[in-house]
Design goal:
The protein is mainly alpha-helical and 335 residues long. The protein has 13 helices and 5 strands. Helix 8 links the parallel strand 4 and strand 5. Helix 2 (54-70) packs across helix 12 (270-296) and helix 3 packs across helix 7. The structure holds adenosine monophosphate and tryptophan (TRP). Adenosine monophosphate (AMP) is lined by residues 10-11, 13, 20-21, 24-25, 148-149, 187-188, 197-200.
């Protein structure tokens, strides 16, 4: 039996991934590479949908790859590539755009939010067709599952609809993929505002722990995290969001259950918890940071990994695209 295939992508939008990205998404990617035929990519084409700085984009793409490798993505187990290295993504995107309804694209929440904020003349057609590109990303590889966060559910629904629409108009090519919503994935909250999710765009620097920050500075952020009234260290997200968030992070990084931690910290104070978690964080992140640096110091090695990934991805993507072109009636070029 071949392993079921999973595919996912992440945008290279920041200098560094943060704990929310790692605990909410990347950790699951790493786990899935053991049991699935996994395809993971950096969605650099999606990063063009908002205004960006070209020099930063290429540096961030490299840094994203280095971080994925440093946290345990194994290029011998999973296929790791950069979206723009495969022209098939943009090519299938065109077919998907021609299947996507104008109204349908207008109803995508992510687009609606951004265009409401920025005005329809400031947002690009690229942002409008972002979900059609995402559908192409996915359908090219015909995965069974697409591990994503809850916020991507609507884009996955559209992908399924487009797959079915394609099949009914042009003949069956796709099996609609299932969203693998990471329910048990930790949702990590802002250290300073434990009611809000840790986020690149919303968190203040003090509220967010980035993988590439100085580990000592990160430990300090943990020690300065907002905790709650009372003194007991128990997991109670409703009444003690700050402490609960720290327990979730601690549990994930130290590989211990929240229950074990609660027992350990009985009778101790918030200060003890924060100090210890700061140390756990330093221990966990220091080698990751060193690895990232050594990958970034060896761009030739990174390029080799990426070109191997692109080659493997192309074996699948080119086949799907040829089948799609044939089904929609595009004349094959003479050989
Ligand atoms: P973003 O860069 O915000 O689109 O996030 C990339 C991935 O990280 C997505 O799969 C998100 O679901 C996940 N993610 C981002 N922030 C958090 C968070 N605070 N807690 C858990 N997962 C997160
Ligand atoms: N839109 C996704 C996000 O912001 C990233 C992404 C692009 C993606 N293409 C994808 C995720 C294909 C899964 C599958 O998180």
């Amino acid at each position: 039996m071949p392993r079921p295939r999973v595919l996912s992508g992440i945008q290279p939008t920041g200098e560094s991934f943060h704990l929310g990205n790692y605990l909410g998404a990347l950790r699951q990617w790493i786990a899935l590479q053991e049991t699935h035929d996994a395809f993971y990519f950096i969605a650099d084409l999606h990063a063009l949908t908002i205004e960006h700085d070209p020099k930063l984009l290429s540096a961030r793409t490299r840094a994203s790859v280095a971080q994925l490798l440093a946290v345990g993505l194994d290029p011998d187990r999973a296929t790791l590539f950069v979206q723009s290295h495969l022209p098939e993504h943009a090519e299938l995107c065109w077919v998907m755009q021609c299947l996507t309804g104008f109204g349908e694209a207008s109803r995508m929440v992510q687009f609606k939010d951004k265009s409401a904020k920025q005005g329809s003349d400031r947002v690009s057609v690229g942002l409008f067709s972002y979900p059609s590109l995402q559908a192409a990303d996915i359908l090219l590889y015909r995965p069974q599952y697409v591990p994503v966060g809850e916020d991507q559910r609507q884009h996955l629904e559209l992908t399924r609809d487009l797959a079915q629409r394609f099949n009914s108009r042009f003949g069956t090519v796709f099996t609609p993929p299932e969203a693998y919503i990471l329910k048990d994935a930790a949702k990590i909250y802002d250290l300073q505002e434990p009611g809000a999710k840790m986020s690149k765009s919303a968190s203040s620097p003090a509220g967010i722990v980035e993988l590439l920050d100085d580990p000592k500075a990160s430990a300090k952020k943990i020690r300065s995290a907002v905790t709650d009234t009372g003194r007991e260290i128990v997991y109670d997200p409703e009444n003690k969001p700050g402490v609960s968030n720290l327990l979730v992070i601690y549990s994930a990084l130290a590989g211990r259950t929240v229950g074990e931690l609660e027992a350990d910290y009985q009778g101790k104070g918030y200060g003890d918890l924060k100090k210890d978690l700061g140390e756990v964080l330093i221990e966990w992140v220091t080698p990751i940071r060193e690895q990232v640096r050594s990958y970034l110091d060896d761009p030739a090695e990174l390029d080799k990994i990426l070109s191997r990934g692109a080659e493997r991805a192309r074996e699948v993507a080119a086949g799907t695209l040829a089948t799609v072109y044939d089904h929609v009636g595009l004349l094959a070029p003479a050989r």
